[in-house]
Design brief:
The protein is α+β, with helices and mostly antiparallel strands and 180 residues long. Strands 1-2 form a two-stranded antiparallel ribbon. It has a two-stranded parallel sheet with strand order 3-4. Helix 5 links the parallel strand 3 and strand 4.
């Protein structure tokens, strides 16, 4: 594993590596996962977090937001472009391999998948196939409607294997002044 200059492989690299190897179940999980507590031993705020593990999106480090052509961002985008996203079943299969490796290596009590990008893209749809419980947070906007509709459509299918909790939120009202 190459952890030089803060780099750490993540989900994009795992999916890419899994697609390019004959035996993806033999990939070393330690090449793709970070122990939050161990990686921050000298930071008091992280002292008791060694039981929390994180798989980052990709090998981005703190400089990825730099829009001046940062190499980490380019590596991430290149890695993402190499992943075959044409088949939900393929992505689900690789996620299942990843989850099996996590269960074998770490034996966690809970695994949380962040589908912040929504339930209408390939990763969000894959999460529906992988989870026994889906918690959806939706706002009242047109932007969230496609994801909400896709989640409900999947939930009401006869082949559904997950339970769901859906929460709606609205932004707090703007503060008003006496004159406004």
């Amino acid at each position: 594993m190459d952890c030089v200059a803060g780099k750490k492989n993540g989900l994009v690299e795992f999916l890419s590596d899994a697609q390019l190897t004959a035996h993806p179940e033999e990939l070393d999980l330690n090449d793709y996962i970070i122990n939050v507590g161990d990686d921050n031993k000298n930071n008091f705020a992280y002292n008791n977090l060694n039981n929390i593990w994180l798989i980052p999106a990709g090998n981005l480090n703190e400089g990825y937001a730099d829009l001046s052509g940062d190499i980490d961002r380019n590596d991430y985008l290149e890695g993402l472009a190499k992943i075959n996203l044409s088949s939900v079943n393929s992505i689900v299969n690789y996620f299942n391999i990843l989850l099996d490796r996590i269960n074998e290596t770490i034996e966690p009590n809970i695994i949380l998948l962040d589908s912040r990008t929504g339930f209408n893209d390939i990763f969000g749809t894959a999460a529906l196939y992988l989870s026994s419980c889906v918690v959806g947070f939706f706002g009242f906007s047109r932007q969230t409607q496609p994801g909400l509709m896709n989640l409900l459509k999947e939930y009401y299918k006869n082949s559904n294997t997950f339970s769901t909790t859906i929460s709606f939120f609205d932004h707090p009202p703007k503060s008003r002044t006496r004159n406004g």
